[in-house]
Design a protein that fits this description.
It is globular, with a radius of gyration of 17 Å. It is an alpha/beta fold and about 280 residues long. It has a single domain, classed as TIM Barrel. The protein is about 35% helix and about 15% strand. It has 9 helices and 8 strands.
């Protein structure tokens, strides 16, 4: 019998159209430990053909690469340190992550940036860790997977101080900001990742309008699972855990907001993700 932990993601799945790519999934999170193979199979059944597994710490980045190696052409990884873990970014870990970032399974540097909402790491330490990872991206020549919450001014200033870091591009992951922030990121050349936050009538309503302002060639989709379960999902899972199988629900919401078909949106966002992360075309 095939070991479910090594069975290729999507093997034997019926082709589903339109094909989608989840550019941000925290698949190493312990909430997936008991059923990760089933999560992957549900994603494939829903038409999610490829995923980028987020590395948010040293350990998490290594685990993300391990998963990507188990599922070549389907899963890929990022390597970096989330601002919550900025205090962990020693010189030794920075060197280790740079070597990891050079591996073929790693398609972006990050998740890196600033988070002044939680302040789990001191702000000066966050800024230093962010700048260090921007320098890493410039050296390895891979795009950035970026995080920003309640830190727009400093985030933008640091990015502008390291222009070479954006030579391969950068995506503002899980964008939830204002119109002014969106325009600033687009002007800087950033791509935009939209999550199930747009499905939340309490705090994501403004994104319904802003989604129309994002050029098709700059827009990508993500779940950010296990976080940000779409609030309007029915039936609502009892676990309240988000997973890639719900990406079509997010895509449908974004498509309605933009006044286009799900098929058109899926085709554009999938093509954009493949260009940005240099993913193989497997559909």
């Amino acid at each position: 019998m095939t070991n479910p932990n090594t069975r290729p993601f999507g093997a034997g799945a019926t082709a589903v159209s339109p094909a989608l790519i989840d550019i941000g999934i925290n698949l190493t999170h312990d909430s997936y430990d008991s059923d990760r193979p089933a999560v992957l199979e549900r994603a494939a059944a829903a038409g999610v053909v490829q995923m980028v597994v987020t590395g948010a710490s040293g350990e998490g980045s290594h685990k993300a690469v391990e998963l990507a190696r188990l599922h070549p052409t389907r899963l890929f990884a990022t390597a970096g340190v989330h601002p919550h873990h900025a205090t962990e970014l020693t010189s030794e870990l920075a060197d280790d992550l740079e070597q990891l970032a050079r591996q073929p399974e790693v398609v972006a540097v990050g998740e890196c940036g600033l988070d002044y909402f939680r302040d789990y790491s001191p702000r000066d330490v966050q800024r230093e860790a962010f700048a260090r990872q921007l320098e890493t991206a410039a050296r390895v020549g891979k795009p950035l997977f970026l995080h920003q919450r309640d830190a727009h001014a400093d985030f933008l200033a640091i990015l502008k101080e390291h222009p070479r870091a954006l030579d391969a591009g950068g995506v503002a992951h899980c964008f939830t900001g204002t119109a002014a922030e969106l325009r600033a990121y687009l002007e800087l050349g950033l791509f935009i990742g939209i999550t199930g936050w747009i499905c939340d009538e309490r705090r994501g309503r403004h994104l319904l309008e802003l989604a129309r302002e994002i050029p098709a060639e700059r827009l990508m989709l993500e779940t950010d699972g296990p976080y940000l379960l779409p609030r309007d999902l029915e039936p609502r899972p009892t676990s309240r855990r988000n997973e890639p199988a719900y990406l079509p629900h997010i895509a449908a919401t974004v498509a309605r907001a933009r006044g286009e078909s799900v098929e058109s949106l899926a085709q554009a966002t999938t093509a954009t993700a493949r260009r940005f992360f240099r993913l193989p075309d497997i559909t």
